[in-house]
Amino acid sequence: EMRRRDFELQHKQDFHLKDVALHHHDFFEVYFLIAGDVTYLIDSKIVHVMPGDLLLISPRELHQVCIQPEMSAYERYVLWVEPAVIKRLSTEISDLSLGLEQGHNQLRLSPQDRSRIQNLLENLHREADSADYGADLLRESLLTQLLIAINRLAEDTSDNQRENSRG
């Protein structure tokens, strides 16, 4: 469960992980894999996740992670965001929930996009519990930047899929 009212960002690294049951939340989940061999089950779709992939999981989408027990670490960022927060950060012309809700569970990123997303996550993680001056504003700004980046990536993915399906 979420401890904060707005968002929660965890950077996790594990060598052994117990099985996670199929579950869903009332909030959005953004999952960014850094290292590991992971398969995700999302609403009965099987998704093989590669390092550098982003997963977007909507509220109420059932999901479950299956980790291959390797010697290598399983490292990822997991961001939980309340729909109300996404609504509050959105404007009339930029609805930040669109990219999260259009049914792309998996975004495969270019090396350039991958490092941009990872930087935003690292900065947001650093500010998440900070009491430094302006940390609240910086958190909101970084979260907004991250959501904009994700929406742009989701839009590019949709455009490419439309191009490809035209054949």
Short description:
By secondary structure, the protein is α+β, with helices and mostly antiparallel strands. The protein has helices at 83-89, 98-101, 111-128, 135-166, and strands spanning 7-14, 28-35, 38-42, 45-49, 53-57, 63-67, 74-81, 106-108.
- Strand and helix order: EEEEEEEHHEHH
Number of helices: 4
Question: What distance separates the N and C termini?
Answer: 44 Å
Structural class: alpha+beta
**What's the total count of β strands?**
8
Helix content: 25-40%
> Gyration radius, to the nearest Å?
16 Å
Could you tell me the mean pLDDT?
88
Gross morphology is globular
Main pleated sheet: 5 strands, antiparallel
Describe what you observe in this structure.
This protein has 167 residues and is α+β, with helices and mostly antiparallel strands. It contains 4 helices and 8 strands; from the N terminus they run βββββββααβαα. The protein has helices at 83-89, 98-101, 111-128, 135-166; strands at 7-14, 28-35, 38-42, 45-49, 53-57, 63-67, 74-81, 106-108. The strands form 2 sheets. Strands 1-7-2-5-8 form a 5-stranded antiparallel sheet. α3 (111-128) packs antiparallel against α4 (135-166). It is globular and about 40 Å long. The mean pLDDT is 88.
